[in-house]
């Protein structure tokens, strides 16, 4: 029996890669330095795998931005507009990922999407008519060579063709099928190079096989792999799946000529059943994912050992593995100095998970009489209090809209923002100094109050209709709330990559969630005291807080969502009591953890909607409830967005949901709506003309009485210098539009 991981995280234990990339992008280091330092980081990661006594070393899991993009570049899937810039291969790569505006031209980045139901974002490759698919790089093999001195078994990782085709965009006149022959040729060429390089095992990652597959998908899968496997020669191939079971294709796959198959026993509800009902071929190796790669709790050894025994009894040749790449968990518990020891004992981050694999191997191969209880971790013993959420009936949207208009008296096409304002160095330093106890509470707050005042004056000058306080007290929209509710712990260093150089630090849910005291009220109350315009209170919603935290394993995440809704109800009540007339409950992560299989989706969505409605229903009908969702493909959950029954839904519309404008479902939404009029992640300042066009486009699908005008998302990554002209232009465009519209009957 051996051990392996699907992939090792590449951002670095101290986020080394993040800092390197950002230095390169700021032109502070050369390409050569970047490449050299990246190679050093790879060596560190390999050495950690050696030190962890894994039997396999994984190669080419490293990426300077994203491995899906790496695969697209490997096979020359690069749209002409990027080639035309005439940049180096490295800079073309970054132009695809981040866009480019410099002396050689201007080009927007490729789309970015959530990687299955994780909070990692991949770059969406774009196939176009003139795309000439062929193997054009030797990077994976060069990395293979970098491991020459390591003595353990080696596997080289590459994204498989099925998942590549499923996750890409097709912008020309041709669909995926057209590209299959060329793609097969390119992969076969890669196989040939692998053989030349004496690659021991090629791991083809095919997570898309855990999705619901239709007959045409199965046909595509069979076509790809019957041809690829026929041409593999002596190359050994591991087909690796994760994020669920492969119930739709398991029977087909075990008949194919793979040398090994990687299956997920953690999230794959039916994996064990599949393996037992159609016996796993004894001439293949099973890479069994039994250590959870997506959560931070220690493995339950008793259950794992039973599973291992079960598989061994079937005569299966086993490699024990993580259930997916370790990039979804933090590096190591050694970075956590403040966690209570009793909790630390129950946790396992990346390095600890590698040790767990070794331990499981030792226990599974040890004398069966040996006592294994000594290492059985205590399971989480938190209670599981779920408050059932009673749904009171509330006034209808139309009735509420009337009441709200009477109290708010807003103009047609009201303008607003999504909540956060620039998090300048000074704002971040203020928080940091306070956290390090270098600053007294009163001084910390004084700074924030001053910042709020500046922000309110700024918004008044610009002429926005609904103002916000700016969120200066929040380091992060989830951690801020987690720190103040009970049931969470926040970590010091548990970073995971979100996209490119960006990382997030999810809190850990360790117990039942309870409300302690008001979290946002004093800031919002102060902001409102400075202006006669309405200031909306902005909160993070229950589903988003849970989805952007590490969840308990002893209760379903849905129970935590309901607990949070019950807790946040107190905050909403406190806000109403202190005079808030508009409350925005952000749910940007609502779509993220949508189960991958259709059968599992309604139950998840019902909980998310139920939790939101519960908060909503606890408010008076005069209180306007807004919500904000962004950077996810919400067009297919539109009926559920409607069920939120929010008064105003503010959606991002520039990066992931351009198609929104063509979606007739909007006309049926029983809520006022904003489809972000400009991209907040771009440095470009939108002109009045551009913004006017954007507003007109929206008016073509949304009635004027129901349209709000706002940017795509929060403004925390921008500077006031950029914001002033952007928001001013937005208000100007909106005012011009108002003049062109017939007066509403009100
Ligand atoms: C990722 S959604 C962000 C919403 C939050 N209110 C902000 O403005 O930053
Ligand atoms: Zn957002």
UniProtKB/TrEMBL annotation:
Its cofactor is Zn(2+). Its EC number is 2.1.1.14. It is an enzyme of class 2 (transferase). Residues 3-312 form the Cobalamin-independent methionine synthase MetE N-terminal domain. GO terms for biological process: methylation. Pathway: Amino-acid biosynthesis; L-methionine biosynthesis via de novo pathway; L-methionine from L-homocysteine (MetE route): step 1/1. Residues 413-734 form the Cobalamin-independent methionine synthase MetE C-terminal/archaeal domain. Keywords: Amino-acid biosynthesis, Metal-binding, Methionine biosynthesis, Methyltransferase, Transferase, Zinc. InterPro entries: Cbl-indep_Met_Synth_N, Cobalamin-indep_Met_synthase, Met_Synth_C/arc, UROD/MetE-like_sf. GO terms for molecular function: 5-methyltetrahydropteroyltriglutamate-homocysteine S-methyltransferase activity. Belongs to the vitamin-B12 independent methionine synthase family. Catalyzes the transfer of a methyl group from 5-methyltetrahydrofolate to homocysteine resulting in methionine formation. This is 5-methyltetrahydropteroyltriglutamate--homocysteine S-methyltransferase. It comes from Amygdalobacter indicium. The lineage of its organism: Bacteria, Bacillati, Bacillota, Clostridia, Eubacteriales. The gene is metE.
């Amino acid at each position: 029996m051996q051990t392996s991981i699907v992939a090792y995280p590449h951002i670095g234990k101290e986020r080394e890669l993040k800092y390197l990339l950002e230095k390169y992008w700021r032109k502070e280091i050369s390409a050569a330095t970047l490449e050299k330092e990246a190679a050093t980081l790879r060596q560190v990661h390999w050495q950690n795998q050696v030190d962890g006594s894994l039997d396999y070393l994984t190669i080419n899991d490293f990426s300077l931005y994203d491995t899906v993009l790496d695969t697209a570049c490997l096979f020359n899937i690069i749209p002409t507009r990027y080639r035309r810039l005439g940049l180096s291969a490295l800079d073309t790569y970054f132009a695809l990922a981040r866009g480019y505006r410099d002396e050689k031209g201007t080009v927007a980045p490729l789309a970015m999407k959530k990687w299955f139901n994780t909070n990692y974002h991949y770059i969406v490759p774009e196939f176009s008519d003139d795309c000439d698919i062929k193997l054009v790089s030797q990077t994976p093999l060069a990395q293979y060579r970098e491991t020459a001195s390591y003595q353990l078994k080696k596997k080289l990782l590459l994204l498989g063709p099925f998942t590549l085709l499923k996750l890409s965009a097709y912008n020309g006149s041709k669909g995926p099928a057209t590209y299959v022959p060329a793609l097969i040729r390119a992969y076969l060429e890669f196989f040939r190079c692998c053989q030349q390089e004496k690659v021991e095992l090629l791991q083809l990652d095919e997570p898309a096989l855990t999705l619901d597959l239709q007959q045409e998908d199965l046909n595509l899968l069979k076509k790809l792999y019957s041809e690829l496997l026929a041409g593999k020669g002596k190359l050994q191939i591991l087909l690796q799946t994760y994020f669920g079971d492969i119930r739709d294709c398991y029977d087909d796959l075990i008949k194919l000529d793979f040398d090994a198959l990687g299956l997920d026993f953690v999230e794959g509800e039916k994996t064990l059943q599949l393996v037992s009902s159609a016996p796993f071929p004894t001439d293949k190796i099973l890479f069994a994912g039994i250590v959870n790669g997506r959560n931070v709790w220690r493995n339950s050894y008793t259950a794992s050992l039973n599973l291992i025994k079960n598989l061994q009894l079937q005569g299966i040749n086993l490699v024990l593995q993580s259930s997916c790449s370790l990039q979804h968990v933090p590096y190591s518990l050694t970075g956590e100095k403040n966690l209570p020891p009793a909790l630390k004992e129950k946790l396992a981050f990346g390095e600890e998970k590698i040790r767990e694999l070794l331990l499981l191997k030792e226990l599974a191969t040890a004398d069966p009489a040996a006592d294994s209880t000594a290492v059985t971790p205590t399971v989480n013993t938190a209670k599981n209090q779920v408050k059932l959420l009673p749904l009171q009936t509330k006034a209808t949207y139309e009735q509420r809209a009337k009441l709200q208009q009477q109290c708010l008296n807003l103009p047609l096409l009201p303008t607003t923002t999504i909540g956060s304002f620039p998090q300048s160095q000074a704002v971040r330093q203020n928080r940091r100094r306070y956290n390090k106890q270098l600053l007294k509470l009163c001084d910390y707050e004084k700074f924030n109050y001053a910042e709020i005042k500046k922000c309110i004056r700024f918004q008044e000058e610009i002429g926005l209709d609904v103002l916000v306080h700016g969120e200066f007290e929040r380091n992060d929209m989830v951690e801020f709330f987690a720190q103040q509710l009970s049931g969470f712990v926040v970590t010091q260093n548990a970073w995971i990559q979100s996209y490119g150089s960006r990382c997030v630090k999810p809190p850990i849910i360790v117990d039942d969630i309870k409300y302690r005291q008001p979290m946002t009220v004093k800031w919002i109350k102060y902001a409102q005291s400075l202006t006669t315009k309405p200031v909306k209170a902005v909160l993070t919603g229950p589903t988003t807080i849970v989805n952007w935290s590490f969840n308990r394993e002893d209760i379903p995440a849905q129970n935590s969502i309901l607990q949070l809704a019950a807790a946040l109800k107190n905050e909403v009540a406190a806000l109403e009591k202190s005079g808030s007339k508009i409350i925005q409950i952000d749910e940007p992560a609502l779509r993220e953890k949508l189960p991958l299989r259709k059968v599992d989706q309604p139950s998840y969505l019902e909980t998310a909607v139920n939790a939101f409605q519960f908060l909503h229903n606890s408010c008076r009908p005069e209180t306007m409830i807004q919500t904000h969702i962004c950077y996810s493909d919400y067009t297919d959950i539109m009926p559920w967005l409607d069920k939120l029954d929010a008064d105003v839904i503010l959606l991002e519309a520039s990066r992931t949901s351009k198609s929104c404008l063509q979606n007739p479902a909007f006309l049926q939404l029983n809520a006022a709506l904003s489809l972000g009029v400009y991209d907040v992640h771009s440095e470009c300042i939108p002109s009045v003309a551009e913004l006017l066009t954007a507003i007109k486009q929206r008016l073509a699908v949304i009635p004027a009485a129901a349209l709000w005008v706002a940017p795509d998302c929060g403004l925390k990554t921008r500077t006031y210098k950029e914001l002033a002209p952007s928001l001013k232009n937005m208000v100007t465009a909106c005012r011009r539009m108002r003049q062109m519209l017939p007066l509403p009957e009100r």
